[in-house]
Amino acid sequence: MRIASWNINSVRTRAHRAINLLQQHDIDVLCLQETKVADDKFPTEPFEEAGYHVSCFGLNQWNGVAIISREKPEEVWTSFPGQPGFAKDPEAEQSLEARAIGARIRGIEIWSLYVPNGREITDRHYAYKLQFLYQLARYAESRSNSKFLLTGDFNIAPRDTDVWDIEAFRGKTHVTEPERAAFQMLLEAGLTEVTRAHTLDKRYTYFDYKGFRFPKNEGMRIDFQLASATLADACTTADIDLTERAGDKTSDHCLLIADYDLPDFDSVR
Fold first, then answer.
1. Which residue in 162, 253, 259, 260 is the catalytic one?
2. From 53's CA, which of 35, 119, 160, 226 has a CA 20 to 30 Å away?
3. How does the cofactor attach, per the note (predicted)?
4. Report field, pTM of the whole predicted structure over 0.90
């Protein structure tokens, strides 16, 4: 089973690119983040015409997540238990954002996640980010004995080597100890970061549009696939598609792919 994740940075702008990647890499499940579209405006038709099922959750032009799959999911969820909401005004209702969508496909529970950015350390969004991760870790722990996968844009660089220059990030989000501790909580909940070991030569999954970061190989590793023990043992290889990132008018994130050797899974072609 080939599972991929991509922060697409607007699905309406890049639907054709996503379909090309699905076909080029022979992907069974593609998890998208930052689709930036409400459900009623999601470009479902081209995906369906290409032979895929679309599960999406979007409320407006911000955030948004989706799971594109060869097979129709057995079940779909648009939030995980305990997922916090957010509003800039602390006195306003803290509404749920479109940051998580889960689907059960062939008995595997797969989540496409767009973890809050955090903005600035002094911003309320930073506390929201930590709370989001704490609740996610709590839920992951309850699912650790099943075939369970969290994938997407985590907006955290867990190690100093996951950014092109740690000194450029001092005092900023993505590399703070509380964020890294929250990421570690996911691993302590029984999950394994399966993609890193197979992609040490490529290192980064995100390159800012500004500053010519991609040609200078100045990026960040902030996209991951975290799998429960049963699923992690089945992961045979992973890859970061740098070719797509080098393309014109593409996303600032790279496609992240992992293969799982599951004896009971016959991919639908």
1. 253
2. 226
3. Probably binds two magnesium or manganese ions per subunit.
4. yes
